[in-house]
Design goal:
It is a multi-pass membrane protein. The chain is mainly alpha-helical and 192 residues long. The chain contains 7 helices and 3 strands; from the N terminus they run E-H-H-E-H-H-E-H-H-H.
Length: 192
């Protein structure tokens, strides 16, 4: 949370010699605090102490109160022109490895529960035949061993009609693709 601001040049100039705050005759304590804060410069590029000219909101409130009581024509918003609210960088503490491990376990558990919820009404049974898909694999393996695996469906069955229709449609699509491929190849050879 912001508790200070980075003073702009206008406030620094107003407090300096010949500045706008000089005729206001600020109380000694307030002037000393402001000059101490605004006069700070970083030594040796050390930025760990925070930026230069960092003024607390308390000091700004005291200055505003004093200017109000004196009936000054100098307004605070004019003095703060060019100043910025200072938001210190938030340092995140390192994460606890135990907590991270527990969170990972919980995520995995929740993912498993979600998967079970989604797949709870999925079954491996074919409703038409009353068997499971694993039974189908067993039947196929048994049929291949015995040599009695049917090469084609029974004549006249609906399944045979569907297979025949699918073969005809697939043949037509295959021939159309072959025709297009030949035309494209012919066009590319003609350009050489």
């Amino acid at each position: 949370m912001a508790s200070s601001l980075l003073a702009g040049e206008r406030l620094v100039r107003a407090l300096g010699p010949g500045g706008e705050l000089e005729p206001e005759q600020l109380p000694g304590k307030l002037r000393a605090e402001l000059e101490a804060v605004l006069g700070k410069k970083h030594k040796g590029g050390d930025r760990s102490a925070g930026p230069a000219r960092l003024v607390s909101f308390r000091l700004i409130r005291d200055l505003h109160q004093y200017l109000r009581e004196r009936g000054s024509t100098l307004y605070l918003h004019e003095l703060l022109e060019g100043s910025e609210i200072y938001l210190p960088e938030v340092v995140k503490p390192p994460r606890n490895p135990e907590l991270v491990a527990r969170l990972e376990k919980i995520k995995i558990q929740l993912a498993n529960e979600e998967y079970k919820r989604i797949t709870r009404n999925v079954t491996c049974q074919d409703s038409r035949y009353g068997g499971t898909l694993s039974d189908l694999g067993k039947q196929g393996a048994r049929g291949c061993r015995a040599g009695s695996w049917p090469a084609s469906p029974k004549p006249g069955s609906r399944t045979s009609q569907q297979v025949l229709a699918a073969l005809i449609v697939a043949s037509v699509v295959g021939l159309a693709e072959l025709y297009i491929m030949v035309r494209v190849m012919e066009g590319e050879l003609g350009e050489l």
